[in-house]
User: What shape does this take?
Amino acid sequence: MIPLWNSSKKNITSPANLFVMAVGIKQKYLVNKMVVKFVASGFAIMLFHYDGAVDEWKDFEWHSQVIHVSATSQTKWWFAKRFLHPDIVAEYDYIFLWDEDLGVDDFHPEKYLSIIEREGLEISQPALDPAKSEIHHLITARLRNSIVHRRTYRPGGPGKVCNAQSTSPPCTGWIEMMAPVFSRAAWRCVWYLIQNDLIYAWGLDMQLGYCAQGDRMNRVGIVDAEYVVHYNRPTLGGADEDKATPKSHKHDPRVEVRRQSYVELAEFKRRWRKASREDRCWVNPYPQSIPL
Assistant: This one.
C-alpha cells in the first residue's frame, strides 16, 4: 500500500513478506489473532472476504493497514489466481496462504522464517498440534524434539505405506493446503499450476513438489518448532444455522462443496495426464511418482 502523499521511495518501507487469508465474519476471533501476530512481525496482509462482510472488521485497529478484496462465495484459490499473480507479489520473499480456522498461540512468524531460510525450504507449512488439531495426513502432525521433518514413516493414505524408501507424496515432498508457505520462486511456479476454473485446488498438493526449486524431498517440509492448531471449522458454504428449521429439513451446502471438490480432483488429474502426454519437452524428474 502506497500513501497518497510523501510517496517517494525513500519514505516507504516495503514489507518483505505477505500473509493472505480468505475470511468470513464467523471466524472473526481466530482471524484477528492471526492478523495481529503477523502485523506485529512486519508482514503485508491481504484478506479475501468470501461473505461480503468488509465493514464489520472496522472495529479492529489493523483494519486500515490491510488490503481487503471482496467477492461473495469464492474460495481461497479462486482469489489467489486472480489477485496474487507472481509479478504482483514479486517483491515478497515468502507468501503465507492460510485458511482462517487456525490457532496461532504457539506460532511466531519471525522464528518460522528463520527456520525455513536456514533449512532451505521453498515450500513448507507449520506442523499441527496433534493434541488439539483435526489431522487428515499424519505427515503434518508435530514431532516433538524436532525442528523440521520432511517425511513420515507412518501410513500415508489408503493403500500407501510410508517408509525410508518412499520417494513420493504424501510420504515425502508434500504439505497440506491449509497453511502453505511459498518462496517467491516456488509461488511463481505454483500460481501457473492453479487452474483458473477449478476453485478447490484438489490434486494440487500432490504436484507442489515440482515447484520446489530442487529435490522435493529436501526443499519441501513440515516445521515442528513452530506449530499451529487446525480447528477444522469451515464456514464457506456452511450449513443453514436457523435454529427454527428442523434438522431433517436443513440444507448443508458443504455436501455439494465436497462433491464438487471430487469432480475437480478428477478433472485436474485428467489435465495433468494430458499435458504430460502431449508436451514433448516434458521430462518427469520424479518418474517413480504415484501416477495421477
User: Anything to note?
Assistant: Residues 39 and 48 are 16 Å apart (CA to CA).
